[in-house]
Design brief:
FomD barrel-like fold, single chain, seven-stranded mixed β-barrel
Length: 166
């Protein structure tokens, strides 16, 4: 198990225990089941993530974003999700990261959407952090447009259906 803590400016900290799949000097990979009180965002007239879906999270220790492979309740790949956040810091039992509001959803067909722009605009982040977030959002969009997102190591990460979830 790995304990994942997310801090959001102006919001209560969030914490989860996730199943540890890999831990290297560059990333921590874990899996979990989404347990949401309400479905998460819509895109192209459908709900992106809902309770009972699964995620495999690639927390990149030197990057300002993570990558989550999102699976439906039957553990079929639905798409990819990225939180823009500060690079995580390791703790004794996991890691902590500061979420910076903007997120991307990427469908399997390549369609994508930038999420939570309203939260980002109202967050009143320091100007240097706001500038960095916009730079990372632009970088991710470019990767998506150039079809280099998700990276091959995320697409090819081998796991069984039993390893998805907790």
């Amino acid at each position: 198990m790995v304990k994942v803590r997310y801090l959001r400016p102006g919001k209560e900290p969030r914490e989860w225990d996730q199943r540890l799949l890999a831990d290297t000097d560059k990333m921590i990979v874990s899996s979990f089941e989404f347990r949401l009180q309400k479905p998460f965002s819509t895109f192209n007239d459908r709900i992106l993530i809902e309770s009972g879906n699964y995620g495999v999270m690639f927390d990149l220790l030197d990057r300002w974003y993570n990558i989550v492979k999102v699976f439906d309740e039957e553990k079929r790949l639905k798409g990819y999700y990225s939180d823009i956040r500060e690079p995580p810091e390791r703790t004794e039992d996991g890691y902590v990261a500061k979420d910076l509001f903007l997120d991307y959803w990427i469908d399997l067909n390549g369609d994508y959407v930038l999420l939570d722009e309203d939260e980002f605009r109202s967050a009143e982040l320091p100007s240097e952090i706001e500038k960095k977030v916009l730079e990372i959002a632009e970088k991710l969009e470019k990767m998506i447009e150039e079809d280099t997102y998700p990276p091959k190591y995320v697409e090819e990460f081998g796991l069984s259906k039993d390893e998805i979830g907790r």
